[in-house]
């Protein structure tokens, strides 16, 4: 589900980093950890923000006890370079009512450098097309597919539609003010031949959000790209360009390939051709050494209920997350049902299906309309969603669709709706990682320019909005002394810029678990 037309945005923003110390490596043969924040499965290392799950494809030969974390077979170790773990965010725009594609975070050989206990992990290459070699197949078996999942709770995010003359950066800022919190994840929509990272993705990298990037098999001129051509290798040049560009960001992101292929009819090909194209994309990315992308297959919930999802499934070796777009239509779309549905009811099919596959679940889009006959019902729908998230800890990512698509999904469709979403977003359970939130009173003006920076919305892991931080540092970007503090960031810091120029003001917070996050805003003085 997405708006009818693509838009563009000129987001400005700043950088958030997920620290390696905040990661946990846990054996996830069972697909996801149901133990909650206080217990971890055997073989896991409890982390401070996100847990890194190693999927069951790894070989016992890669498990080394004792020694250093770099005890890797030389032929595998040479295939990857260690990179700092960062975080990516994105401002994105849906190109058509049902097109984009999805991505997920697959994690690398450099993970081994974090493991003092000596667990060495190597990522290999997995083939899915005619170019595969025997070595590709061997590496596919040896590969350790890793997902970045919060140790507890939900990574909370949204897509923000534009209103009036605002661009998407302004739309996302407005959404966050409405929600009274910073989003962990931001949904970005892109077409096949759109250069990456696009300006929206770069903007979110600056702000420290994790990008949830969808790429659809449709070109900027409106022409389609067949799944068969992707699977055959005919589109490898474009895939390699995307792979190298996203690898170059050095930050993790979720990738969705051809979002909702089950709603595309036969425009791009058959379900089997979709699955083959998905495998080809992942294979090419791995061949280019991409280790910061996690791959997700996203369908509509009914496909998981009807069994149609099976035909689209690329295989557990290639898919890290199972995604579903869960909506309460309540009659707004004649083909989608005319009854009121809780989020619990909407997600039931995908939860059962993903459980069998042993994969974590994301909701790349979700939303509700109002109930014209019952005031306040949508607001309660959001409050009830928190209970659903807690009952189903396998739901690790939820990105709300704040716009008008087939129906009106705006969060502020009523005061009670906005209040309900604020209550959901304020919960510690929906703060699954640290978040610095820097809100300047203005982004531009003439010298001398006085800017008031509000830091008070910054939040720590599993903490209610505005709490949970132990230390903070604010750099105004003009060479003046940094302002630092302990505990909750001071509500407002005032700074005067006296010289014309462009300045990068950056706030870094360290939460109670030692996890850091940064948010950067560009201040232009004329």
What does this structure look like?
This protein is α/β, with parallel strands linked by helices and 526 residues long. Among the domains are: 153-430, TIM Barrel (Alpha-Beta Barrel), CATH 3.20.20.80; 439-525, Sandwich (Immunoglobulin-like), CATH 2.60.40.10. Helices cover 23% and strands 22% of the residues. The protein has helices at residues 74-77, 134-142, 168-179, 199-207, 227-232, 236-247, 271-287, 301-306, 309-312, 343-357, 377-391, 415-426; strands at residues 23-27, 50-54, 102-103, 146-150, 155-160, 185-191, 210-216, 253-257, 293-299, 321-324, 326-328, 361-363, 366-368, 395-402, 439-440, 444-445, 449-454, 469-475, 483-486, 492-497, 501-511, 516-525. The strands form five sheets. An eight-stranded parallel β-barrel has the order 5-6-7-8-9-10-12-14, surrounded by four helices. It has a five-stranded mixed beta sheet with strand order 16-22-21-18-19, with no helix packed on it. Strands 1-2-4 form a three-stranded mixed beta sheet, with no helix packed on it. Helix 7 (271-287) links the parallel strand 8 and strand 9. Helix 6 crosses helix 7 (271-287) and helix 11 (377-391) packs parallel to helix 12. The longest helix has 17 residues, at 271-287. The radius of gyration is 22 Å and the shape is globular. The two termini are 41 Å apart. Mean pLDDT is 79; it is low at 2-48 and 52-144.
């Amino acid at each position: 589900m997405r708006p009818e037309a693509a838009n563009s945005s000129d987001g400005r923003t700043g950088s958030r980093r997920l620290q390696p110390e905040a990661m946990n490596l846990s054996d996830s043969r069972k697909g996801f950890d149901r133990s909650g924040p206080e217990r971890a499965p055997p073989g896991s290392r409890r982390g401070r923000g996100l847990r890194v799950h190693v999927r069951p494809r790894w070989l016992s030969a890669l498990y080394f006890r004792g020694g250093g974390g770099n005890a890797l077979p030389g032929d595998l170790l040479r295939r990857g370079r260690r990179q700092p773990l960062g975080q990516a965010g994105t401002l994105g725009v849906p190109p058509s009512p049902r097109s984009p594609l999805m991505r997920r975070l697959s994690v690398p050989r450099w993970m081994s450098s974090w493991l003092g206990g000596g667990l060495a992990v190597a990522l290999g290459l997995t083939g899915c097309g005619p170019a595969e070699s025997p070595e590709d197949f061997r590496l596919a078996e040896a590969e350790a597919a890793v997902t970045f999942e919060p140790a507890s709770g939900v990574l909370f995010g949204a897509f923000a539609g534009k209103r009036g003359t605002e661009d998407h950066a302004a739309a996302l800022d407005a959404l966050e003010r409405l929600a009274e919190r910073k989003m962990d994840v931001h949904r970005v929509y892109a077409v096949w031949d759109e250069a990456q990272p696009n300006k929206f993705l770069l903007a979110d990298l600056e702000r420290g959000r994790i990008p949830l990037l969808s790429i659809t098999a449709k070109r900027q001129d409106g022409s389609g790209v067949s799944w068969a051509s992707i699977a055959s290798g005919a589109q490898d040049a474009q895939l390699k360009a995307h792979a190298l560009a996203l690898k170059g960001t050095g930050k993790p992101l979720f990738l969705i390939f051809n979002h909702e292929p089950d709603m595309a009819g036969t425009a791009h090909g058959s379900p089997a051709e979709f699955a083959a194209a998905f495998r080809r994309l992942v294979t090419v990315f791995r061949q280019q050494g991409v280790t910061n992308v996690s791959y997700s297959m996203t369908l509509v919930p009914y496909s998981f209920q009807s069994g149609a999802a099976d035909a689209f499934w690329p295989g557990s070796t290639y898919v890290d997350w199972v995604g579903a777009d869960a909506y309460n239509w309540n009659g707004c779309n004649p083909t989608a049902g005319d009854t009121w549905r809780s989020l619990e009811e909407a997600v039931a099919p995908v939860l059962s299906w993903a459980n069998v596959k042993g994969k974590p679940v994301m909701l790349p889009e979700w939303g509700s309309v109002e109930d014209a006959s019952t005031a306040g019902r949508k607001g309660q729908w959001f409050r009830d969603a928190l209970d659903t998230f807690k009952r189903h800890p396998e739901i690790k990512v939820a990105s709300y669709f704040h716009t008008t698509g087939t129906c009106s999904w705006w969060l502020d469709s009523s005061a009670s709706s906005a209040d309900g979403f604020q209550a959901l977003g304020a919960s510690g359970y929906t703060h699954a990682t640290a978040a610095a939130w820097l809100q300047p009173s203005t982004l531009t003006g003439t010298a001398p320019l006085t800017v008031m920076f509000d830091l008070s919305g910054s939040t720590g892991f599993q903490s209610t909005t505005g709490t949970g931080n132990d230390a903070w540092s604010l750099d105004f970007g003009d060479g003046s002394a940094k302002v630092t503090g302990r505990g909750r960031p001071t509500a407002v810091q005032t700074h005067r810029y006296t010289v014309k120029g462009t300045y990068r003001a950056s706030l870094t917070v360290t939460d109670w678990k030692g996890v850091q996050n940064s948010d950067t805003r560009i201040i232009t003085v004329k």
